[in-house]
Amino acid sequence: MSQDSLLSLRGLKVHFPLPSRGLFTESGAVHAVDGISIEVKRGTTFGIVGESGSGKSTAALAVMRLVPITAGEVWLGDKNITELKGGDLLAMRRKVQIIFQDPYSSLNPRMRAGQIVREPMDLMKVGDPATRGDRVAELFERVGLRPEQQALFPHQFSGGQRQRIGVARALASQPELVVCDEPVSALDVAIQAQILNLLRQLQDEFNLTYLFISHDLGVVQYVCDEIAVMYLGEVVEQADRISLFTRPLHPYTWTLLSAVPSAKTKGRTRRIHLQGDPPSPIDLPPGCRFAARCPFAEAQCHTARPPLREIGGPGHKVACHLVSETGVAPHQALEGKL
Questions:
Q1: Stretch (H or E) spanning 320
Q2: Domain at 1-17+29-231: CATH architecture
Q3: pLDDT at 182
Q4: How far is CA 201 from CA 24, 167, 198, in A?
Q5: Residue 13 in contact with residue 37, Cβ under 8 Å?
Q6: What is the C-alpha separation between 220 and 41, in angstroms, rounded?
Q7: pLDDT tens per residue across span 246-299
Q8: What's the CA gap between 169 and 98, in Å, rounded?
């Protein structure tokens, strides 16, 4: 891992075993995350996008050590955190915090807002107990809440305000990495923009690194520096924001971008509708997992699994047999006709 990288996932797999359906029947497993490798540079925002069921949130929970890791490694700086336990795991949690998707269910309804933000400091023994109250007040101010609102309960706040409490709670332990698991998807569009602007502002103030999970490419385009596109547990394309939005190489990325108004260019004006459903994550096909829905699939796509290879520029990776070594995508010939 390079010196400027904070987070590294190396062949990460998260499989959820299923109960056996009979005495002589082998139990299967849900392949939620199936061998992804990414690196997140310090002070940047790395986005993971994909449909529901692609494995993006499971990958985030694996980084937090909130789900069991089947194989692979998770590195935070120069430390392998994959198998940490007890006090070592608690120490790691000071450095990695999470902002959950739903601000309505992620806050304890029986605790006052100030207690919610202070709780991580008390559990992880962050700072002097005598100064923790001042730290809570400071965090309330930084996220745009008034000091007197510390005495209120979660139900007395709006959705956007509750998410601001969630942001303050995530910052309480002074983390290096903040996992943002769809942090604005449950909010109105106008409030989404406010929270996204707040996250960017806090990133600059505290030199934070974000792992940003989302299904909304419009949001990802606004906040992320680098993006990985996941499909059925695998990364199918990875690139910096500009490269991904101006020159998508994988047919799946191409179809996703066709639904984003801000991503539509002269050569991409119509939404592309995929046919069929994704394969079962329990019984995966031998070849490309997108082949059954891909309008360009050939025979090899159904039998051989495409490797994730660097094509078309430094850091631009794609897992597709049909993308040429010079970076010509299979959908390129169609773009001018759509």
A1: none
A2: 3-Layer(aba) Sandwich (3.40)
A3: 93
A4: 57, 12, 5
A5: no
A6: 17
A7: 999 999 999 999 877 665 544 555 777 777 788 889 989 999 999 999 999 999
A8: 9
Q: How many CA atoms lie within 13 A of 155 on its CB side?
A: 3
Token pair recorded at residue 202: 């806090």
Q: How confident is the model at residue 314 (pLDDT cuts 50, 70, 90)?
A: confident
User: Residue 336 — very low, low, confident or very high, per pLDDT cuts 50/70/90?
Assistant: low
CA dist 76 to 39, 86, 216, Å? 10, 17, 27
Residue 19's beta-bridge partner residues?
A: none
Q: Can you give the length of the chain in residues? A: 338
Burial tier of 59 (Cβ tally within 10 Å: 0-12, 13-18, 19+):
buried
Indicate where the chain has its CATH 3.40.50.300 domain(s).
1-17+29-231
- Please tell me the distance from the alpha carbon of residue 49 to that of residue 228, in angstroms, as a whole number: 6
Token duo for residue 293: 């829905």
Burial track 224-246 (b if 16+ CB lie within 10 A, e otherwise): bbbbbbbbbbbbbbbbbbebbbe
Across the chain, what does the average pLDDT equal? 90
